[in-house]
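Worked Example 4.2. Consider the chain below.
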Amino acid sequence: MQDWSKTSAATQHIGVLLFDGFSNHCLANTVEPLRAANMLSGRALYDWQFLSLDTGAVTSSSGLQVAPHQSLSQATGDLLVVMPSYGFLSHSGWRTQAALRSAIGRFDTLVGMDTGSWLLAEAGLLDRHRATIHWEELIGFAERFPEVEAVRERFVIDRDRITCSGAMAAFDLVMHLIGRDQGQALALEVAQLFMTRDSARSHSGGAGPASMFVNRALAIMQENLEHPIPIPEVARRVGRTQKVLETRMKEDLGASPAQVYRRLRLNLARKLVMESDLPIAEIALRSGYDDPSAMTRAFRKEFGKSPRALRS
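Applying the procedure from the previous section yields the following structure tokens:
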């Protein structure tokens, strides 16, 4: 079962190792959810640095230049994200292999994004691990590295190695890590910010039919924040019993449908408090509360301060 709400005391330090030809899309899908998690939580849950093998600028496949904060040889952290994307074979020589091997002692977990899995495998860092890669390269990857268990999945977490199949899957992976490490309540809020409908899959990593009806339930809730509908009606609209919906939502998100629905409404209330000058009574109505006092009590319980205190 997923954790709905928890607090991580320490900031996670992430190094993003870029190579010429990296994908802007993959980079944004990796970093932007982390930035949003910091913003929404009001805490420095994550920090990140862009790294390279040299100190010069790195150029993406579409011509965007990124100046690295430092070289890989100087960096330490919790996660090292290896991101070559296009032209990865030109980066798979001995120099890259040596640099990645030397990073093992300075980073707790190695992450291969997109075709980064190939570079990790070339350095012998995925031996006896399950791993994936961009699916266009999967057959060649399996043939080239028989000591790696290659699988066709969006992302794979195997002990201190993580591999991811592409730019869109990078978003799912990072959402999963946010939910795992910071709780599903924050992950759901990040998903709302990015307007993704596949929230449950992004959180739990699942993609089966059960998670699909949780996604539909979340969409129904989001469409009915001002005028909440009863949970039995949500279950009826997704074609499941209330008991089945509650069981699956607790497995996927670590909370009951009522808890999730309340959080969605209070997230809207917090957004209106921070970004508008609407009266608290009006905000209460827009977030599904007839009684402003009831909304204020729920708001304080959820976020640790009243709407007026947050606004001031």
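The CA atoms of residues 122 and 144 lie 9 Å apart. The radius of gyration is 21 Å. Compare this with Example 4.1 before moving on.
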